[in-house]
Structures are given as structure tokens and as C-alpha cells.
Amino acid sequence: SSFKTAVGLAATRAVQAKSKIGSQEQEKKRGILAALDRGEEEKVRIVAESLIRLRHEQLAVDMLKLLLDNLKSRTSSIINSKDPPADLFWALGSILVCRRHFSTQIPELEEIHKQLCNKYGKVSMDQLVDDPEYVHPRLTQLLTVLPPPAAEVAEVVRGVAAEAGRAVPQWAQAKAVPEPAAPAAGVGRSAGGYAAPPQASAPASAPDYMPVSPPATVAGTAPHPAPAP
Question: What phi, psi does 195 have (nearest 5°)?
Fold first, then answer.
């Protein structure tokens, strides 16, 4: 079907996107080293934050590829079901969140979204994306726009400097980096220092596409009358 084709092409494109991000990572490392040579501390921090985001994008694309492979193996369930399959809620929600971030690099994600909306209705698909219970919590962390903590920035600078045989600036040395401020009451933090996604009910050991219990509002939503993909 055209849906299965779009999912397969998206998975292939995800591999290409990861490779492109890898080449950009080397460019960022050179930028950090150049800024270190010039003694531009603030520039080093800015480029290091950009490198961290690139690495997070690379991990997110890896997860997206796994989710797309899983979805491709289940396309018959999508084609033959009246409502979104409950055991694919987490995969669908996570893939559609990735669409918001990677549709330029992986345009097939737009086609996947279009066909799912035609079959199940845009309201149903929006519910999966907007409810954090149906998006993998690790993806929420990786795709955040919040700046990384100072300790992580310093760790990256140390790693890049050590890899190139350069001296580590004093501000980036392990003992010189202050611990991140404690989160506000009610807000958790992951091991990486990022705010934990709200209502993330899936266990930390869950695989990338473990299903979670569907909400009645999504499971009971009638599909759009458009033909199946």
C-alpha cells in the first residue's frame, strides 16, 4: 500500500538524516576548538550547546527509525482497523511528534501524517501527539528546546579538547562546574539534567514502542470517511 511505502521510505530517509547529522557534528567540534584557541569562552559554550542538540537529534532519529520499522511491520493493522490500534498509540504519537522536528529531512513523515488523519481523523491524531502519555518520554527529553545544563556543556568541551589533545579551560574542568539548580517543586529531572516529561507513565526500562493503555476519547473516535491508505 501507499502507506507502507511511505513508512519504508521514511525509515530509509532517517538513516540518511543520521549520517548528515554526524557530518555536522565534526563541524561543531572544529568550531569549539577554534573558539578555544581564541579564548572565546562564551563562543565555546554556544557551540558546545549546539553540538549537544545535534547529538540529541541523532539519538532521536535512531529512535524514530526503530519506531518506523515497527510501524511498517504492522501496516496491515492500520489498513484494516476502524480505530487506531491501541497497541500502536505510543508508536504513532512518537512518530508524529518527530514529524514536527524532522519533516524537512524526512518529508515522508508528512505523508504518513496525512494518511493517518484521512483514515482516523485529525482530532484523534492530535490527541496522540498532544498527550505526553502517548509520546516516548526519552523523545520528549531529546527534542526539548531548553538549554542543556552547565555540567553537560562542560563535559562536552572536556571531551572535544581531550580528543584533540588540547588543554581544558579552567571553567570546564570537572571541579569548576557548579551543580545545576534544583528543579522547582513538582518538576522531576532525568539523569541527563532535563526536566522529566509530565505524566510519563511508562517505566524507564520500557522499549521504544511498548504500548500503553489508550484513552477512551481516542479509542472511541470514529474514523474520517476518507478511504484507507
Answer: -60, 135
Angle at the Cα of 103 (from 29 to 111), degrees rounded to 5? 155
For the chain of 229 residues, list the mean pLDDT of each consecutive stretch of 10: 93 94 92 95 96 95 95 91 90 94 95 95 91 90 90 95 92 65 42 35 38 41 41
Asked if residue 129 lies in contact with residue 89, where contact means CB atoms within 8 angstroms, the answer is: no
Whole-angstrom distance, CA of residue 108 vs CA of residue 77: 20
Alpha carbons 24 and 10: distance in angstroms, whole number: 21
Residues 196 and 182 sit within 8 Å (Cβ to Cβ): no
Residue 128 · residue 134 · CB < 8 Å: yes
Listed as own residue / partner, the contacts of 49-57 with beta carbons closer than 8 Å and 24 or more positions apart are: 49/147, 49/148, 49/153, 51/25, 51/156, 51/160, 52/148, 52/152, 52/153, 52/156, 53/148, 54/21, 54/24, 54/25, 54/28, 55/25, 56/141, 56/142, 56/143, 57/21, 57/101, 57/142, 57/143
